[in-house]
Design a protein that fits this description.
The complex is a heterodimer of chains A (292) and B (432). Chain A contains 13 helices and two strands, in the order αββαααααααααααα. Chain A is mainly alpha-helical and 292 residues long. Chain A has one domain: MetI-like fold (Orthogonal Bundle), CATH 1.10.3720.10. Chain A has a two-stranded antiparallel ribbon. In chain A, helix 1 crosses helix 13, helix 8 crosses helix 10 and helix 12 runs antiparallel to helix 13. The relative contact order of chain A is 0.14. The model of chain A has no long low-confidence stretch (mean pLDDT 89). Chain B starts with a helix and ends with a helix. In chain B, helix 2 links the parallel strand 1 and strand 2. In chain B, strands 1, 2, 3, 6, 7, 8, 9, 10, 11 and 12 form a ten-stranded mixed sheet that branches. In chain B, helix 9 runs antiparallel to helix 10 and helix 16 runs antiparallel to helix 17. Chain B folds into two domains: 187 residues, Periplasmic binding protein-like II (D-Maltodextrin-Binding Protein, domain 2); 207 residues, D-Maltodextrin-Binding Protein, domain 2. In chain B, 50% of the residues lie in helices and 14% in strands. The chains are: A mainly alpha (292), B alpha/beta (432). Chains A and B meet through helix 12 of A and helix 3, helix 4, helix 11 and helix 16 of B.
């Protein structure tokens, strides 16, 4: 009887396991397997190189780790600037302010726009030849003319400019999730705190923040996963890797696949990148568990 | 009884339909995949014309953008389900990989039949891109494996109206590098942008740098460098890198050039915001669409040396290959023969502003396109060199030039970095 029940339970989870295996586990194993070969992606013959591709990634490919560093830099800006902005706006919209529904819609427009469109639009805003050059004009108008320059073609500002545009595009997701999280906090807690004489700051620090930790972890994990994989926006803004200054892992994988026709190596890069993301997510998750 | 009659009726109907479809199938449908958005309507028109002539349907399927097309073709190749005719976007080694995998039909016998009658209609340089010479480094049997549909050259274009505004003679574009560099101060004084191009996408940097490499050191030395016999630290190569530094310092390069995508560069030139552009002959159609009143001319990149002639990239713009596994390959070859005939090529040139691959179809093309066509005399292409540079070396080379333009590295530093990667790749190749 017990065996029958167990089997029945397995039958229920079988479709999900099958779908997960077919679309996630098997492709992952397959890509790993391809990462063990030198293959141009066209020929029927592949040369087995063992862990040679992985060895090259870890010990020789300087461009790859530079791209990882660039992605980490964009992610750091997104984790701080983007998520703080998203949280503050969500907190403001959760309170009784005028036109809060209007703001909710407005804040969610950037995430639903295509990255290509966002890139083109910001290129127009930033660029000083074919664009509106709004940022430089504003700086000149405010008396900071010495700061005006081509933000996307300066190696000192290109990556930060890309990161800021990415934050503009992405903060709406965080905003939405934070808002949903804030709305689950019982209002009675705030009322009780107010009756006990707690200030707004104390309510925020002792009620809102602790109860929002799981949501913050979720947003942080989604931010890391989304930002580390950024590339369309970069292509749209600066055309590509810009002498390595805007190089990111996905662009490196594409360069291996299309530029060098090294499919096996690109697969090894994909697996390495995937493993890095899994490890980061796992660490974040463990930290949040400890924090709770 | 009613059911029985109904059953018989359905049976008869299916039999008739079955017979009729069998009859229709006797004429094959040729399936062609391509990425050429600007040529799709012209292809569809020609397909209709061919069907009216022969009864054979030709199905042109457009897959754009070109990146998506490239992936589709590769995936179809891996799955052995390529169409009857297709094009390959990529380098010669990709072309060779498709041939090695048995996907592409050797067209030599068709080209050389009846005293080379098909082969002779093409510009030889257009055909060369699709050809593998004896003892080629790719290990492919010598032969012709593709049919050029049009040709292209990549040159510089200049705005005649802005030239006049700058006090320059619009009939005399700069012929030497020094003349070109001398325009820099005039551009800056007039607040105009100089050269625009898609240098954010890097391959066009590679193209201009190679033009100058041929001009400064000649073809043999360039090929010797690729073979690893001459280092990139050679003074001639440093001179090639230095040209980009000189252009930057003279002010002939537009602002933001290193992160410019070609579409933006085309918009800037078409909207008369830049005096020069470095672009392929396909730009004639693009500029026409953006600004039909634009007055401009094509010119060879200004020579940096008189030791060797300047070379520009050119040859087959786009080519079609026949699927060696297709059951319709004979019909596909017949269609391509028809498509490359003088009339069809003239129609394609007139309707798409691309240069025809058939040399007999050049009669009625606009003057600026004729200027691009004349550049064919100077044309070369990495796909006809017989040797190819390591992709990591090309990457370091192009990135290095970007770094020179933004003042981050010196020509000597870039030359050293490129040479280090070259030596590493050569060592890796020797170890295999």
């Amino acid at each position: 009887m017990k065996i029958k029940e167990t089997l029945e339970n397995y039958v229920f989870v079988l479709p999900a396991v099958a779908i997960f295996s077919v679309f996630y586990i098997i492709p992952f194993i397959w890509v790993f397997q391809l990462g063990l070969f030198e293959w141009d992606g066209i020929s029927f013959t592949k040369i087995f190189v063992g862990l040679g591709n992985f060895k090259e990634i870890f010990f020789q490919d300087v461009n790859w780790w530079h791209a990882m560093w660039n992605a980490a830099y964009i992610t750091l800006i997104a984790l701080t600037l983007q998520n703080i902005l998203a949280f503050m706006l969500a907190w403001a919209c959760d309170r009784e302010i005028k036109m809060k529904n209007f703001y909710r819609v407005i804040f969610f427009i950037p995430p639903v726009l295509s990255e290509v469109v966002v890139g083109m639009a910001w290129r127009f805003i930033i660029n000083d030849i074919d664009g509106a050059n709004i940022i430089n004009r504003t700086l000149i108008g405010m008396g900071f003319g010495n700061l005006a320059h081509n933000w996307l073609s300066d190696p000192n500002t290109a990556l930060t400019t890309v990161a800021i545009v990415h934050c503009w595009k992405g903060f709406g997701w965080g905003f939405l999730i934070f808002l949903a999280g804030l709305q689950t906090i019982p209002r009675e807690l705030y009322e009780a705190a107010r009756v006990d004489g707690a200030s707004a700051w104390e309510s925020f620090r002792k009620i809102t923040l602790p109860l929002m930790v799981p949501v913050m972890v979720l947003v942080a994990i989604l931010t890391v996963l989304g930002t580390m994989q950024v590339f369309v926006l970069i292509v749209s803004l600066v055309g590509g890797e810009f002498a390595g200054h805007t190089s990111v892992p996905v662009l490196r994988i594409l360069a291996s696949m299309r530029g060098s026709s090294r499919f096996g190596y690109a697969c090894a890069q994909g697996i390495t990148f995937g493993m890095v993301l899994i490890i980061i997510s796992f660490i974040q998750y463990r930290f949040s568990k400890k924090g709770q | 009884m009613l059911f029985k009659n109904l059953f018989l009726g359905v049976l008869v109907l299916f039999s008739v339909l079955g017979c009729s479809s069998q009859k229709l199938d006797s004429k094959p449908t040729i399936s062609i995949w391509h990425w050429m958005t600007d040529r799709d309507s012209a292809f569809q028109e020609l397909a209709k014309k061919y069907e009216a002539l022969t009864g054979i349907k030709v199905d042109f399927e457009l897959y754009a953008p070109s990146d998506a097309y490239t992936q589709k073709i590769r995936a179809a190749g891996q799955g052995v389900n390529l169409p009857d005719v297709f094009g390959i976007l990529g380098e010669k080694r990709d072309f060779a990989s498709f041939i090695r995998a048995g996907h592409i039909l050797d067209l030599t016998s068709y080209m050389e039949a009846e005293d080379n009658s098909w082969k002779n209609i093409f510009f030889p340089k257009a055909l060369a891109v699709n050809e593998f010479a004896p003892q080629n480094s790719y290990g492919i049997n010598p032969g012709i494996y593709g049919v050029p549909i049009d040709i292209m050259t990549i040159q510089m274009v200049y705005n005649k109206r802005l030239f006049t505004q700058l006090g320059l003679n619009p009939k005399q574009p700069p012929a030497t590098l020094q003349e070109f560099l001398d325009i820099g101060p005039k551009l800056q004084a007039a607040g105009m942008q100089g050269l625009v191009s898609g240098w954010g996408e890097v391959w066009m940097i590679d193209c201009l740098a190679n033009n100058y490499a041929f001009n400064i050191m000649g073809k043999d030395k360039v090929l010797a460098t690729i073979k690893g016999e001459v280092p990139y630290t050679d003074p001639d190569w440093i001179q090639v890198f230095t040209i980009f530094k000189q252009m930057k310092e003279a002010g002939v390069l537009a602002q933001g050039l290193v992160t410019m995508i070609n579409k933006s560069a085309e918009q800037l030139f078409a909207n008369e915001k830049a005096v020069f552009a470095f672009n392929g002959s396909w730009c004639v159609n693009v500029y026409k669409g953006m600004n039909s009143g634009l007055e401009y001319g094509a010119m060879l990149p200004p020579q940096a040396s008189d030791k060797h002639p300047i070379a520009i990239w050119g040859g087959a713009g786009s080519s079609f290959m026949v699927n060696a596994r297709s059951k319709n390959k004979e019909e596909a070859v017949k269609f391509l023969t028809w498509l490359t005939n003088q009339d069809q090529q003239a129609y394609l040139a007139a309707s798409t502003n691309n240069l025809p691959a058939n040399k007999n179809s050049l009669a009625k093309i606009p003057e600026v396109l004729a200027q691009f066509a004349r550049g064919m005399d100077y044309a070369t292409h990495p796909n006809v060199w017989g040797v190819s540079e390591f992709s990591l070396v090309i990457e370091a080379f192009d990135r290095g030039i970007q770094s020179i333009i933004i003042g981050e590295k010196t020509p000597e530093q870039v030359a050293q970095e490129v040479q280090t990667i070259k030596e590493r790749e050569l060592a890796k190749k020797r170890a295999q």
